[in-house]
Known about the structure:
By secondary structure, the chain is an alpha/beta fold. The protein has helices at about 15-20, 25-45, 65-80, 110-125, 135-140, 210-225, 235, 245-255, 300-315, 320-325, 335-345, 350-365, 370-385, 395-410, 415-425, 430-445, 450-460, 465-480, 485-495, 500-515, 520-530, 535-550, 555-560, 565-580; strands at about 1-15, 45-50, 55-60, 95-105, 110, 130, 145-155, 160-170, 190-195, 200, 230, 260-265, 270-280, 285-295. It has three domains: about 1-170, 2-Layer Sandwich (Alpha-Beta Plaits); about 185-325, 3-Layer(aba) Sandwich (Rossmann fold); about 455-580, Serine Threonine Protein Phosphatase 5, Tetratricopeptide repeat, CATH 1.25.40.10. Helices cover about 50% and strands about 15% of the residues. Strands 1, 2, 3, 4, 5, 6, 7 and 8 form an eight-stranded mixed sheet that branches. Strands 9, 10, 11, 12, 13 and 14 form a six-stranded mixed sheet that branches. The longest helix is centred in the N-terminal third of the chain and has 21 residues, at about 25-45.
Amino acid sequence: MERKLAAIFSTDVKGYSRLMGDDEEATIQMLKTYREVISGLIEQHHGRVVDSPGDNLLAEFASAVDAVKSAVAIQQDLKTRNAELAEHRKMEFRIGLNVGDVITDEGRLYGDGVNIAARLEGLADPGGICLSGTVHEYVENKLDLAFSYQGEQTVKNIAKPVRVYKVEWEVEASAPRISAASPAELPVPEKLSIAVLPFTNMSNDPEQEYFSDGITEDIITDLSKISGLFVIARNSTFTYKGQVRNVTDVGRELGVRHILEGSVRKAGRRVRLNAQLIEAATGGHVWAERYDRELADIFDLQDELTQKIVFALKVTLSPQEQGRFRQAPTANLDAYDAFLQGMEAFWHLTKEGNLQARHHYERAVTLDPSYAAAYALLGYTYIIEWILQWNRDPHCLQQAFEFTQHALAMDEAQPTGHLTLGHFYLWAKNEHEQAIAEAEQALTLNPNFAQAYADLGNLLIYAGQPEAAIERIEQAMRLDPHYPPLCSSWLGHAYRLTGQPEAALAILQRGLQRHPTYLYFHLHLVVTYRDLAQDAAARAAAAEVMRLHPHFSVAGLEQILPFKDPTVLEHYLDALRQAGLE
Protein backbone atom coordinates (compact mmCIF):
# COMPACT_ATOMS: atom_id res chain seq x y z
CA MET A 1 0.00 0.00 0.00
CA GLU A 2 1.10 3.57 -0.66
CA ARG A 3 -0.31 7.04 -0.20
CA LYS A 4 -0.64 9.74 -2.82
CA LEU A 5 -2.53 12.93 -3.61
CA ALA A 6 -5.14 12.48 -6.34
CA ALA A 7 -8.23 14.07 -7.86
CA ILE A 8 -11.07 11.59 -7.29
CA PHE A 9 -14.10 11.32 -9.60
CA SER A 10 -17.22 9.52 -8.37
CA THR A 11 -20.50 9.12 -10.24
CA ASP A 12 -23.76 7.20 -10.10
CA VAL A 13 -27.18 7.20 -11.77
CA LYS A 14 -30.01 9.16 -10.20
CA GLY A 15 -33.12 6.96 -9.98
CA TYR A 16 -31.32 3.79 -11.08
CA SER A 17 -33.68 1.48 -9.14
CA ARG A 18 -36.70 3.07 -10.83
CA LEU A 19 -35.12 2.59 -14.27
CA MET A 20 -34.37 -1.06 -13.50
CA GLY A 21 -37.91 -1.62 -12.26
CA ASP A 22 -39.29 -0.13 -15.45
CA ASP A 23 -37.15 -2.19 -17.90
CA GLU A 24 -34.15 -4.14 -16.64
CA GLU A 25 -32.65 -5.20 -19.98
CA ALA A 26 -32.94 -1.77 -21.60
CA THR A 27 -31.47 -0.12 -18.49
CA ILE A 28 -28.50 -2.49 -18.38
CA GLN A 29 -27.79 -1.95 -22.09
CA MET A 30 -28.06 1.84 -21.71
CA LEU A 31 -25.80 1.75 -18.62
CA LYS A 32 -23.21 -0.21 -20.57
CA THR A 33 -23.30 2.32 -23.43
CA TYR A 34 -23.13 5.35 -21.13
CA ARG A 35 -20.33 3.80 -19.08
CA GLU A 36 -18.28 3.33 -22.27
CA VAL A 37 -18.81 7.02 -23.07
CA ILE A 38 -17.80 8.06 -19.54
CA SER A 39 -14.73 5.81 -19.51
CA GLY A 40 -13.61 7.06 -22.92
CA LEU A 41 -13.86 10.71 -21.89
CA ILE A 42 -12.03 9.99 -18.63
CA GLU A 43 -9.16 8.44 -20.58
CA GLN A 44 -9.13 11.34 -23.07
CA HIS A 45 -8.58 13.67 -20.11
CA HIS A 46 -5.68 11.59 -18.71
CA GLY A 47 -7.76 9.84 -16.05
CA ARG A 48 -7.98 6.19 -14.98
CA VAL A 49 -11.14 4.25 -14.18
CA VAL A 50 -10.55 2.50 -10.86
CA ASP A 51 -13.80 0.60 -10.29
CA SER A 52 -17.38 0.42 -11.61
CA PRO A 53 -19.70 -1.59 -9.35
CA GLY A 54 -23.43 -1.46 -10.19
CA ASP A 55 -24.34 1.99 -11.47
CA ASN A 56 -21.31 3.61 -9.78
CA LEU A 57 -17.99 4.50 -11.36
CA LEU A 58 -14.81 5.66 -9.60
CA ALA A 59 -11.83 7.25 -11.38
CA GLU A 60 -8.66 9.13 -10.49
CA PHE A 61 -6.77 11.98 -12.15
CA ALA A 62 -3.36 13.47 -11.53
CA SER A 63 -4.84 16.93 -12.25
CA ALA A 64 -7.93 18.56 -10.74
CA VAL A 65 -8.27 20.63 -13.92
CA ASP A 66 -8.41 17.48 -16.05
CA ALA A 67 -10.96 15.95 -13.66
CA VAL A 68 -13.32 18.93 -13.95
CA LYS A 69 -12.87 19.15 -17.73
CA SER A 70 -13.70 15.46 -17.97
CA ALA A 71 -16.81 15.84 -15.80
CA VAL A 72 -18.10 18.74 -17.91
CA ALA A 73 -17.42 16.87 -21.17
CA ILE A 74 -19.28 13.83 -19.81
CA GLN A 75 -22.34 15.80 -18.73
CA GLN A 76 -22.42 17.65 -22.06
CA ASP A 77 -22.29 14.37 -24.01
CA LEU A 78 -24.88 12.62 -21.84
CA LYS A 79 -27.25 15.60 -22.03
CA THR A 80 -27.22 15.31 -25.82
CA ARG A 81 -27.91 11.56 -25.65
CA ASN A 82 -30.68 11.97 -23.06
CA ALA A 83 -32.41 14.62 -25.19
CA GLU A 84 -33.36 11.88 -27.65
CA LEU A 85 -35.07 9.77 -24.93
CA ALA A 86 -38.49 9.88 -23.32
CA GLU A 87 -38.45 11.71 -19.99
CA HIS A 88 -38.98 8.54 -17.93
CA ARG A 89 -36.07 6.76 -19.69
CA LYS A 90 -33.39 9.45 -19.32
CA MET A 91 -30.30 8.17 -17.50
CA GLU A 92 -28.81 11.11 -15.59
CA PHE A 93 -25.54 10.80 -13.73
CA ARG A 94 -24.44 12.79 -10.69
CA ILE A 95 -20.71 13.54 -10.36
CA GLY A 96 -18.69 14.36 -7.25
CA LEU A 97 -15.05 15.53 -7.37
CA ASN A 98 -12.51 15.84 -4.56
CA VAL A 99 -8.76 16.26 -4.23
CA GLY A 100 -7.32 14.42 -1.26
CA ASP A 101 -4.86 11.97 0.19
CA VAL A 102 -5.72 8.37 -0.77
CA ILE A 103 -4.31 4.92 -0.15
CA THR A 104 -3.73 2.75 -3.20
CA ASP A 105 -3.59 -1.03 -2.93
CA GLU A 106 -3.49 -3.31 -5.98
CA GLY A 107 -4.99 -0.59 -8.14
CA ARG A 108 -7.87 0.22 -5.79
CA LEU A 109 -8.26 3.48 -3.84
CA TYR A 110 -9.29 3.96 -0.22
CA GLY A 111 -9.56 6.74 2.35
CA ASP A 112 -11.42 9.97 3.06
CA GLY A 113 -10.28 11.41 -0.27
CA VAL A 114 -12.51 8.81 -1.96
CA ASN A 115 -15.32 8.98 0.59
CA ILE A 116 -15.73 12.74 0.26
CA ALA A 117 -16.02 12.44 -3.54
CA ALA A 118 -18.77 9.85 -3.06
CA ARG A 119 -20.64 12.11 -0.63
CA LEU A 120 -20.36 15.06 -3.04
CA GLU A 121 -21.83 12.88 -5.78
CA GLY A 122 -24.93 12.47 -3.59
CA LEU A 123 -25.25 16.26 -3.25
CA ALA A 124 -25.11 16.84 -7.02
CA ASP A 125 -28.23 17.43 -9.11
CA PRO A 126 -29.09 14.88 -11.80
CA GLY A 127 -26.79 15.81 -14.70
CA GLY A 128 -24.81 18.00 -12.30
CA ILE A 129 -21.32 18.25 -10.81
CA CYS A 130 -20.30 19.02 -7.22
CA LEU A 131 -16.77 19.94 -6.15
CA SER A 132 -15.07 20.07 -2.81
CA GLY A 133 -13.48 23.37 -1.78
CA THR A 134 -10.08 21.82 -2.43
CA VAL A 135 -10.91 21.15 -6.09
CA HIS A 136 -12.35 24.65 -6.44
CA GLU A 137 -9.08 26.19 -5.23
CA TYR A 138 -7.16 24.32 -7.92
CA VAL A 139 -9.45 25.17 -10.84
CA GLU A 140 -11.19 28.51 -10.20
CA ASN A 141 -8.59 30.57 -12.10
CA LYS A 142 -7.90 27.97 -14.77
CA LEU A 143 -11.33 27.18 -16.21
CA ASP A 144 -13.89 29.53 -17.69
CA LEU A 145 -16.77 28.04 -15.70
CA ALA A 146 -19.21 29.38 -13.13
CA PHE A 147 -19.10 27.94 -9.60
CA SER A 148 -21.90 28.49 -7.08
CA TYR A 149 -20.93 28.14 -3.43
CA GLN A 150 -23.24 25.83 -1.46
CA GLY A 151 -21.72 26.50 1.95
CA GLU A 152 -20.17 23.99 4.34
CA GLN A 153 -22.01 20.67 4.30
CA THR A 154 -21.90 17.96 6.97
CA VAL A 155 -21.64 14.60 5.21
CA LYS A 156 -21.88 11.08 6.51
CA ASN A 157 -18.78 9.57 8.20
CA ILE A 158 -16.62 12.68 7.54
CA ALA A 159 -15.58 14.46 10.75
CA LYS A 160 -15.32 18.04 9.43
CA PRO A 161 -17.85 19.89 7.25
CA VAL A 162 -16.92 20.04 3.56
CA ARG A 163 -17.01 23.24 1.50
CA VAL A 164 -19.16 22.46 -1.54
CA TYR A 165 -19.43 24.13 -4.96
CA LYS A 166 -21.71 23.33 -7.86
CA VAL A 167 -20.36 23.68 -11.39
CA GLU A 168 -22.71 25.74 -13.54
CA TRP A 169 -21.28 24.11 -16.64
CA GLU A 170 -23.98 25.36 -18.99
CA VAL A 171 -22.93 28.97 -18.23
CA GLU A 172 -20.16 30.09 -20.58
CA ALA A 173 -18.29 32.43 -18.23
CA SER A 174 -17.71 32.44 -14.49
CA ALA A 175 -18.71 36.11 -14.12
CA PRO A 176 -19.21 39.19 -16.27
CA ARG A 177 -15.97 40.99 -17.01
CA ILE A 178 -15.61 44.33 -15.24
CA SER A 179 -14.33 45.93 -18.42
CA ALA A 180 -17.04 47.50 -20.56
CA ALA A 181 -15.80 45.38 -23.46
CA SER A 182 -16.55 41.67 -23.57
CA PRO A 183 -13.67 39.25 -24.31
CA ALA A 184 -14.85 39.06 -27.92
CA GLU A 185 -14.58 42.85 -28.27
CA LEU A 186 -11.19 43.63 -26.71
CA PRO A 187 -9.46 46.24 -28.88
CA VAL A 188 -6.12 45.30 -30.39
CA PRO A 189 -3.42 47.64 -29.03
CA GLU A 190 -1.33 49.82 -31.31
CA LYS A 191 1.80 47.98 -30.17
CA LEU A 192 2.70 44.66 -31.76
CA SER A 193 0.77 42.18 -29.63
CA ILE A 194 1.08 38.46 -28.96
CA ALA A 195 -0.36 35.67 -26.84
CA VAL A 196 1.64 32.50 -26.19
CA LEU A 197 -0.68 29.51 -25.79
CA PRO A 198 0.40 26.62 -23.55
CA PHE A 199 2.74 24.33 -25.46
CA THR A 200 1.38 20.80 -25.75
CA ASN A 201 3.18 18.10 -23.79
CA MET A 202 4.09 15.41 -26.34
CA SER A 203 6.13 13.27 -23.93
CA ASN A 204 3.40 10.64 -23.42
CA ASP A 205 3.90 11.21 -19.71
CA PRO A 206 1.45 13.47 -17.81
CA GLU A 207 4.13 13.88 -15.14
CA GLN A 208 6.13 15.96 -17.66
CA GLU A 209 3.31 18.51 -17.97
CA TYR A 210 5.17 20.92 -15.71
CA PHE A 211 8.09 20.98 -18.16
CA SER A 212 6.06 22.04 -21.21
CA ASP A 213 4.17 24.56 -19.07
CA GLY A 214 7.46 25.89 -17.73
CA ILE A 215 8.91 26.34 -21.21
CA THR A 216 5.77 28.25 -22.20
CA GLU A 217 6.03 30.49 -19.15
CA ASP A 218 9.72 31.17 -19.80
CA ILE A 219 8.92 32.27 -23.37
CA ILE A 220 6.13 34.54 -22.09
CA THR A 221 8.53 36.06 -19.54
CA ASP A 222 11.24 36.62 -22.15
CA LEU A 223 8.83 38.33 -24.54
CA SER A 224 7.25 40.36 -21.72
CA LYS A 225 10.54 42.11 -21.02
CA ILE A 226 10.56 43.63 -24.52
CA SER A 227 9.15 47.16 -24.36
CA GLY A 228 8.04 47.12 -28.00
CA LEU A 229 5.63 44.22 -27.43
CA PHE A 230 2.23 43.86 -25.77
CA VAL A 231 2.18 40.35 -24.24
CA ILE A 232 -0.85 38.66 -22.67
CA ALA A 233 -0.20 37.24 -19.20
CA ARG A 234 0.27 33.57 -18.49
CA ASN A 235 -2.84 33.43 -16.30
CA SER A 236 -5.08 34.19 -19.30
CA THR A 237 -3.36 32.14 -21.99
CA PHE A 238 -3.37 29.06 -19.76
CA THR A 239 -7.17 29.11 -19.65
CA TYR A 240 -6.90 27.61 -23.17
CA LYS A 241 -4.78 24.69 -21.97
CA GLY A 242 -6.03 21.37 -23.30
CA GLN A 243 -8.58 23.04 -25.59
CA VAL A 244 -8.76 22.94 -29.36
CA ARG A 245 -9.56 26.55 -30.25
CA ASN A 246 -9.59 28.53 -33.46
CA VAL A 247 -6.67 30.98 -33.28
CA THR A 248 -8.82 33.71 -34.82
CA ASP A 249 -11.28 33.37 -31.93
CA VAL A 250 -8.43 33.38 -29.39
CA GLY A 251 -6.92 36.48 -30.98
CA ARG A 252 -10.27 38.26 -30.80
CA GLU A 253 -10.95 37.17 -27.21
CA LEU A 254 -7.53 38.32 -25.99
CA GLY A 255 -7.23 41.33 -28.29
CA VAL A 256 -3.91 40.47 -29.97
CA ARG A 257 -2.52 40.37 -33.51
CA HIS A 258 -0.37 37.24 -33.20
CA ILE A 259 -0.57 33.83 -31.52
CA LEU A 260 2.37 31.57 -30.74
CA GLU A 261 1.60 27.88 -30.26
CA GLY A 262 3.67 24.73 -30.25
CA SER A 263 4.61 21.47 -28.57
CA VAL A 264 7.40 20.07 -26.41
CA ARG A 265 8.71 16.51 -26.19
CA LYS A 266 11.26 15.73 -23.49
CA ALA A 267 12.90 12.31 -23.76
CA GLY A 268 15.89 11.54 -21.57
CA ARG A 269 18.46 14.28 -22.11
CA ARG A 270 16.97 15.53 -25.36
CA VAL A 271 14.15 17.93 -26.07
CA ARG A 272 12.18 18.53 -29.25
CA LEU A 273 10.23 21.76 -29.65
CA ASN A 274 7.89 22.80 -32.45
CA ALA A 275 6.67 26.38 -32.63
CA GLN A 276 4.59 28.42 -35.04
CA LEU A 277 3.75 32.10 -35.09
CA ILE A 278 0.29 32.81 -36.50
CA GLU A 279 -1.47 35.99 -37.59
CA ALA A 280 -4.66 35.83 -35.55
CA ALA A 281 -6.95 37.73 -37.94
CA THR A 282 -6.27 35.43 -40.91
CA GLY A 283 -4.91 32.25 -39.32
CA GLY A 284 -1.93 32.50 -41.66
CA HIS A 285 1.52 31.30 -40.60
CA VAL A 286 4.11 34.03 -40.16
CA TRP A 287 6.90 31.69 -39.14
CA ALA A 288 7.39 28.08 -38.01
CA GLU A 289 10.39 26.16 -36.73
CA ARG A 290 11.32 22.78 -35.29
CA TYR A 291 14.17 22.31 -32.83
CA ASP A 292 15.79 19.04 -31.75
CA ARG A 293 18.47 19.68 -29.13
CA GLU A 294 20.27 18.36 -26.11
CA LEU A 295 18.49 19.28 -22.90
CA ALA A 296 21.67 21.10 -21.83
CA ASP A 297 21.02 23.57 -24.68
CA ILE A 298 17.51 24.46 -23.45
CA PHE A 299 18.36 28.10 -22.63
CA ASP A 300 20.09 28.68 -25.96
CA LEU A 301 17.03 27.17 -27.63
CA GLN A 302 14.69 29.54 -25.78
CA ASP A 303 16.86 32.54 -26.68
CA GLU A 304 16.94 31.52 -30.32
CA LEU A 305 13.17 31.03 -30.38
CA THR A 306 12.54 34.43 -28.77
CA GLN A 307 14.91 36.17 -31.15
CA LYS A 308 13.23 34.60 -34.18
CA ILE A 309 9.83 35.78 -32.95
CA VAL A 310 11.22 39.28 -32.46
CA PHE A 311 12.78 39.20 -35.93
CA ALA A 312 9.56 37.92 -37.54
CA LEU A 313 7.55 40.70 -35.88
CA LYS A 314 10.21 43.31 -36.75
CA VAL A 315 10.50 44.52 -33.14
CA THR A 316 13.33 46.94 -32.31
CA LEU A 317 15.31 45.95 -29.21
CA SER A 318 17.18 48.30 -26.91
CA PRO A 319 20.84 47.40 -26.11
CA GLN A 320 19.75 46.26 -22.64
CA GLU A 321 17.06 44.00 -24.11
CA GLN A 322 19.56 42.50 -26.54
CA GLY A 323 21.91 41.70 -23.67
CA ARG A 324 19.24 39.79 -21.73
CA PHE A 325 19.03 37.11 -24.42
CA ARG A 326 22.50 35.90 -23.50
CA GLN A 327 21.88 35.46 -19.76
CA ALA A 328 21.17 31.82 -18.85
CA PRO A 329 19.43 31.72 -15.45
CA THR A 330 21.37 28.65 -14.26
CA ALA A 331 23.92 26.14 -15.47
CA ASN A 332 22.34 23.37 -13.38
CA LEU A 333 19.56 21.54 -15.25
CA ASP A 334 18.32 19.81 -12.11
CA ALA A 335 17.94 23.21 -10.45
CA TYR A 336 16.02 24.42 -13.51
CA ASP A 337 13.78 21.35 -13.33
CA ALA A 338 13.02 22.10 -9.67
CA PHE A 339 12.31 25.73 -10.59
CA LEU A 340 9.78 24.65 -13.25
CA GLN A 341 8.06 22.36 -10.75
CA GLY A 342 7.92 25.30 -8.36
CA MET A 343 6.16 27.47 -10.94
CA GLU A 344 3.67 24.69 -11.66
CA ALA A 345 2.78 24.38 -7.96
CA PHE A 346 2.68 28.15 -7.38
CA TRP A 347 0.02 28.71 -10.03
CA HIS A 348 -2.44 26.56 -8.09
CA LEU A 349 -2.84 29.79 -6.06
CA THR A 350 -3.62 27.87 -2.87
CA LYS A 351 -1.92 27.66 0.49
CA GLU A 352 -0.82 24.10 -0.25
CA GLY A 353 0.40 25.04 -3.73
CA ASN A 354 2.38 27.95 -2.30
CA LEU A 355 4.14 25.65 0.19
CA GLN A 356 4.89 23.10 -2.52
CA ALA A 357 6.33 25.85 -4.73
CA ARG A 358 8.53 27.03 -1.85
CA HIS A 359 9.85 23.51 -1.39
CA HIS A 360 10.82 23.30 -5.08
CA TYR A 361 12.43 26.76 -5.08
CA GLU A 362 14.41 25.80 -1.96
CA ARG A 363 15.65 22.72 -3.78
CA ALA A 364 16.58 24.85 -6.81
CA VAL A 365 18.75 27.24 -4.75
CA THR A 366 20.30 24.31 -2.89
CA LEU A 367 21.34 22.80 -6.20
CA ASP A 368 22.49 26.19 -7.52
CA PRO A 369 23.13 28.85 -4.83
CA SER A 370 23.59 31.46 -7.59
CA TYR A 371 20.09 30.95 -9.06
CA ALA A 372 18.74 34.51 -8.69
CA ALA A 373 15.29 33.88 -10.23
CA ALA A 374 14.66 31.00 -7.82
CA TYR A 375 15.61 33.18 -4.83
CA ALA A 376 13.28 35.94 -6.06
CA LEU A 377 10.30 33.60 -6.35
CA LEU A 378 11.17 31.95 -3.05
CA GLY A 379 10.86 35.38 -1.45
CA TYR A 380 7.57 36.01 -3.24
CA THR A 381 6.00 32.87 -1.70
CA TYR A 382 6.47 34.47 1.72
CA ILE A 383 4.89 37.74 0.57
CA ILE A 384 1.88 35.90 -0.85
CA GLU A 385 1.59 33.99 2.43
CA TRP A 386 1.40 37.28 4.35
CA ILE A 387 -0.93 39.18 1.98
CA LEU A 388 -3.45 36.31 1.87
CA GLN A 389 -3.06 35.84 5.64
CA TRP A 390 -2.02 32.20 5.46
CA ASN A 391 0.72 33.16 7.92
CA ARG A 392 0.31 35.89 10.55
CA ASP A 393 3.85 35.71 11.84
CA PRO A 394 5.67 38.92 10.77
CA HIS A 395 8.87 36.86 10.55
CA CYS A 396 7.70 35.67 7.12
CA LEU A 397 8.11 39.26 5.87
CA GLN A 398 11.72 39.24 7.04
CA GLN A 399 12.30 35.96 5.24
CA ALA A 400 10.84 37.47 2.06
CA PHE A 401 13.24 40.41 2.43
CA GLU A 402 16.32 38.24 2.96
CA PHE A 403 15.67 35.98 -0.01
CA THR A 404 14.84 38.95 -2.21
CA GLN A 405 17.97 40.83 -1.22
CA HIS A 406 19.98 37.74 -2.08
CA ALA A 407 18.32 37.55 -5.51
CA LEU A 408 18.90 41.21 -6.32
CA ALA A 409 22.51 41.08 -5.13
CA MET A 410 23.12 38.46 -7.84
CA ASP A 411 20.87 40.00 -10.51
CA GLU A 412 19.59 43.54 -10.09
CA ALA A 413 17.29 43.05 -13.11
CA GLN A 414 14.93 40.57 -11.38
CA PRO A 415 11.40 42.06 -11.72
CA THR A 416 9.89 39.70 -9.16
CA GLY A 417 12.62 40.64 -6.71
CA HIS A 418 11.76 44.34 -6.96
CA LEU A 419 8.03 43.61 -6.68
CA THR A 420 8.60 41.52 -3.55
CA LEU A 421 10.78 44.26 -2.09
CA GLY A 422 7.96 46.74 -2.73
CA HIS A 423 5.58 44.63 -0.69
CA PHE A 424 8.14 44.34 2.10
CA TYR A 425 8.48 48.13 2.33
CA LEU A 426 4.69 48.46 2.49
CA TRP A 427 3.70 45.64 4.86
CA ALA A 428 6.76 45.60 7.12
CA LYS A 429 7.90 49.24 7.08
CA ASN A 430 4.90 51.38 6.01
CA GLU A 431 7.27 53.11 3.57
CA HIS A 432 4.78 53.80 0.80
CA GLU A 433 6.96 55.83 -1.56
CA GLN A 434 9.76 53.27 -1.49
CA ALA A 435 7.25 50.47 -2.02
CA ILE A 436 5.82 52.20 -5.09
CA ALA A 437 9.31 52.90 -6.46
CA GLU A 438 10.23 49.20 -6.27
CA ALA A 439 7.02 48.11 -8.04
CA GLU A 440 7.62 50.71 -10.75
CA GLN A 441 11.16 49.37 -11.19
CA ALA A 442 9.67 45.89 -11.70
CA LEU A 443 7.56 47.33 -14.53
CA THR A 444 10.56 49.10 -16.04
CA LEU A 445 12.31 45.72 -16.23
CA ASN A 446 9.18 43.91 -17.44
CA PRO A 447 6.72 46.29 -19.16
CA ASN A 448 4.11 43.51 -19.55
CA PHE A 449 4.19 42.26 -15.93
CA ALA A 450 0.43 42.06 -15.26
CA GLN A 451 0.87 41.01 -11.64
CA ALA A 452 3.15 44.00 -11.03
CA TYR A 453 0.52 46.40 -12.43
CA ALA A 454 -2.11 44.87 -10.12
CA ASP A 455 0.19 44.88 -7.10
CA LEU A 456 1.25 48.46 -7.80
CA GLY A 457 -2.44 49.36 -7.83
CA ASN A 458 -2.81 47.84 -4.37
CA LEU A 459 0.24 49.74 -3.10
CA LEU A 460 -1.24 52.98 -4.47
CA ILE A 461 -4.52 52.31 -2.64
CA TYR A 462 -2.73 52.18 0.71
CA ALA A 463 -0.66 55.24 -0.23
CA GLY A 464 -3.85 57.28 -0.68
CA GLN A 465 -3.83 57.39 -4.51
CA PRO A 466 -6.96 55.40 -5.50
CA GLU A 467 -7.39 57.14 -8.89
CA ALA A 468 -3.90 56.06 -9.97
CA ALA A 469 -4.61 52.62 -8.51
CA ILE A 470 -7.65 52.17 -10.76
CA GLU A 471 -5.56 52.95 -13.83
CA ARG A 472 -2.87 50.42 -12.89
CA ILE A 473 -5.32 47.65 -11.97
CA GLU A 474 -7.22 48.11 -15.24
CA GLN A 475 -3.88 47.87 -17.11
CA ALA A 476 -3.33 44.55 -15.33
CA MET A 477 -6.78 43.38 -16.41
CA ARG A 478 -6.10 44.26 -20.04
CA LEU A 479 -2.84 42.32 -20.01
CA ASP A 480 -4.64 39.48 -18.21
CA PRO A 481 -8.27 39.38 -19.46
CA HIS A 482 -8.92 36.31 -17.29
CA TYR A 483 -7.53 38.19 -14.29
CA PRO A 484 -7.47 36.58 -10.82
CA PRO A 485 -10.13 37.55 -8.24
CA LEU A 486 -7.66 39.70 -6.28
CA CYS A 487 -7.87 42.27 -9.08
CA SER A 488 -11.63 42.61 -8.57
CA SER A 489 -11.14 43.03 -4.83
CA TRP A 490 -8.56 45.78 -5.23
CA LEU A 491 -10.47 47.53 -8.01
CA GLY A 492 -13.68 47.60 -5.97
CA HIS A 493 -11.75 48.93 -2.97
CA ALA A 494 -10.21 51.69 -5.13
CA TYR A 495 -13.56 52.74 -6.60
CA ARG A 496 -15.06 53.07 -3.11
CA LEU A 497 -12.15 55.27 -2.04
CA THR A 498 -12.77 57.59 -5.02
CA GLY A 499 -16.33 58.18 -3.82
CA GLN A 500 -18.02 55.73 -6.21
CA PRO A 501 -19.59 53.15 -3.87
CA GLU A 502 -22.23 52.01 -6.40
CA ALA A 503 -19.53 51.07 -8.91
CA ALA A 504 -17.51 49.45 -6.12
CA LEU A 505 -20.50 47.38 -5.05
CA ALA A 506 -21.11 46.02 -8.58
CA ILE A 507 -17.44 45.08 -8.97
CA LEU A 508 -17.22 43.38 -5.56
CA GLN A 509 -20.45 41.43 -6.04
CA ARG A 510 -19.26 40.10 -9.42
CA GLY A 511 -15.89 39.20 -7.93
CA LEU A 512 -17.57 37.41 -5.06
CA GLN A 513 -19.27 35.07 -7.54
CA ARG A 514 -15.84 33.85 -8.60
CA HIS A 515 -14.23 33.66 -5.16
CA PRO A 516 -16.95 33.45 -2.47
CA THR A 517 -14.62 32.65 0.44
CA TYR A 518 -12.04 35.43 -0.04
CA LEU A 519 -12.01 37.50 3.16
CA TYR A 520 -11.38 40.94 1.64
CA PHE A 521 -14.35 40.70 -0.75
CA HIS A 522 -16.60 40.41 2.29
CA LEU A 523 -14.79 43.10 4.31
CA HIS A 524 -14.88 45.58 1.40
CA LEU A 525 -18.58 44.78 0.95
CA VAL A 526 -19.31 45.54 4.60
CA VAL A 527 -17.67 48.95 4.31
CA THR A 528 -19.27 49.68 0.92
CA TYR A 529 -22.75 48.83 2.21
CA ARG A 530 -22.14 51.14 5.17
CA ASP A 531 -21.09 53.94 2.80
CA LEU A 532 -24.37 53.39 0.92
CA ALA A 533 -26.33 53.40 4.21
CA GLN A 534 -27.51 49.83 3.53
CA ASP A 535 -27.13 48.75 7.14
CA ALA A 536 -28.99 45.45 6.91
CA ALA A 537 -26.83 44.34 3.96
CA ALA A 538 -23.71 45.42 5.86
CA ARG A 539 -24.70 43.30 8.87
CA ALA A 540 -25.41 40.32 6.62
CA ALA A 541 -21.99 40.69 4.98
CA ALA A 542 -20.40 40.94 8.43
CA ALA A 543 -22.15 37.74 9.51
CA GLU A 544 -20.73 36.03 6.43
CA VAL A 545 -17.24 37.16 7.45
CA MET A 546 -17.61 35.42 10.81
CA ARG A 547 -19.16 32.30 9.28
CA LEU A 548 -16.27 31.88 6.85
CA HIS A 549 -13.52 33.18 9.15
CA PRO A 550 -14.55 32.49 12.77
CA HIS A 551 -11.27 33.82 14.19
CA PHE A 552 -11.46 37.19 12.45
CA SER A 553 -11.02 40.27 14.64
CA VAL A 554 -11.07 43.98 13.83
CA ALA A 555 -8.19 44.50 16.27
CA GLY A 556 -6.09 41.97 14.38
CA LEU A 557 -6.90 43.63 11.07
CA GLU A 558 -5.91 47.02 12.48
CA GLN A 559 -2.42 45.68 13.16
CA ILE A 560 -1.73 44.80 9.53
CA LEU A 561 -3.57 47.25 7.22
CA PRO A 562 -0.89 49.73 6.05
CA PHE A 563 -3.00 52.79 5.15
CA LYS A 564 -0.87 55.92 4.97
CA ASP A 565 -3.77 58.15 6.07
CA PRO A 566 -4.95 57.14 9.57
CA THR A 567 -8.41 58.66 8.96
CA VAL A 568 -8.97 56.25 6.04
CA LEU A 569 -8.05 53.32 8.28
CA GLU A 570 -10.31 54.57 11.05
CA HIS A 571 -13.28 54.93 8.69
CA TYR A 572 -12.73 51.38 7.43
CA LEU A 573 -12.50 49.89 10.92
CA ASP A 574 -15.47 51.91 12.24
CA ALA A 575 -17.64 50.62 9.40
CA LEU A 576 -16.73 47.05 10.30
CA ARG A 577 -17.51 47.62 13.98
CA GLN A 578 -20.83 49.33 13.24
CA ALA A 579 -21.85 46.31 11.18
CA GLY A 580 -21.29 44.08 14.20
CA LEU A 581 -17.70 42.86 13.80
CA GLU A 582 -15.40 42.99 16.83
